[in-house]
Amino acid sequence: MYAILGMLIFVLVTALIFFSVVITLWWFWRRATTPEGEAPPRWGDPRSLRDALSNPTIIVRMIMVAFIAGVVALPMEWIHELARDRFARYRTVVAEISSVWGAEQVVTGPILYVPYTITFQTVEEVPLSAAEIAFEQSRGSERVTREITRSHEKTRAALILPNELNIDGHISTETRYRGIYTVRVYTADVNFSGSFTRHNLSGLHQNISDVHWDRAVLVIGITGTRAIRGISELEIAGEKHDFLPGMGGMTVLPSGFSAPGDLSNIAEGDTFAFNFDLSVGGSGGFFMTPLGVSSSFTLTSDWPHPSFTGSGLPVSREIGADGFSAVWSVPNLVRNYPQVDDMQNWGALDINSDFRRLPRNFSGHNIYEYVVGVEFVEPVFHYSLIIRSISHSLLFIVLTFLGIVIFENYYGRRYRVMLSAAQYAVIGAGLALFYLTLLAASEHVGFTTAYKIATAQGVIMTGGYVAAAMRRLRPAVMIAVVQSLLYAMLFMILRMEDYALLAGTALLVAATAALMVVTRDVNASR
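User: That's the sequence. What structure does it adopt?
Assistant: Structure tokens below.
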């Protein structure tokens, strides 16, 4: 209620200021152009303005139309705000569905987590007992402490990245509904394969006493574990293991799952293979981390509008009406972390961290330093089209008014029938309703169909009203044609991604040229 009242007050104050400026400029112009021998209009005398409005020139009508267009732009701001609110509501629905189905997924791994034990000694000084102090004093010594050597064991962990990492996946998309809103989600069926090498870990620490290859854990990080639809057994080094919840002691990744395995029977320096399948739901995007010395990723999908993003683009891709396929080939030279290192040298992220924006206190190797993937986005999104069309509204309202002025100036003077300021205001209200109809209908029947409905409504209302007001069919038809062409041009601009600015500029040039043609004889006619 208060917002509507504030808007009404703003409209009234703005209109009053604009009207005052127009009247002042009019008096200046009339006093400067009054022929010799005639008395110039007195300041504040509205008779000259009233006479001009009763028999207006094209310049006066353009000033009047500009004023009405400025007033019509004010409710357009309310429609713009309404569109933004609906867009915000849509994003809330997307977040709600994504929280259940699965949000943007970032798959990291697999990583081999291998604990090892270091043994070290410390020398401590402990105080002597009273009897020991007395004994030392009897020997002439003033020593009151003695040194004790203690042996300690501490368990640490090494993280080993794969030599070869292959990810082969198919992503199928579908639409989920919540009321009038639709959300695009996907299910990714992915196969992971590759190989690891049993490295000599003695270089990680000088006091390693034992490496526990029998307690090795294969860890896979994933953004949303609740979206996992299914997973196969892990095949590694010729054996099969079940995956378990949790990270198996690894703290670098915020969430994921793991599988323990005994790798003690593998000789040092030998290579062993792994393989498993994963099915996971998500929305927005699917990303992969190339951790191998050589990483090869292949994705196919039925989504025809992919946006390849991340740290690197695919080396090959094919995009068609039935979907896309893409291949990434990434060597480990593109990143700055090693294939084998102690876990304490890696930076850890919490579960709420975004891999694109690291916290300020982050330190250590960043496992998300190089991430590749694809986003599933609409090429020109529904609500973005609405907001963009409203952003162009003032331009197209002015151009429509310009067309009406041109045809009214020709036919109106010919048949002595002109539109009044009130009638222009009614036409302006109809032009504003085009955008409200477009917003309301597009939420139910899609943007293209809604645009056709709103265009038909606007053309019929404006053309029919002009025909009734001027009592002539021909100017109404011409105005309807111009309005239809303008709406067609707006639709083309909205659908264009790369050439929208060029098309909009061309339209402005054409409108300016038309204005020059219409006003070329203004001085002669006066």
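The radius of gyration is 37 Å.
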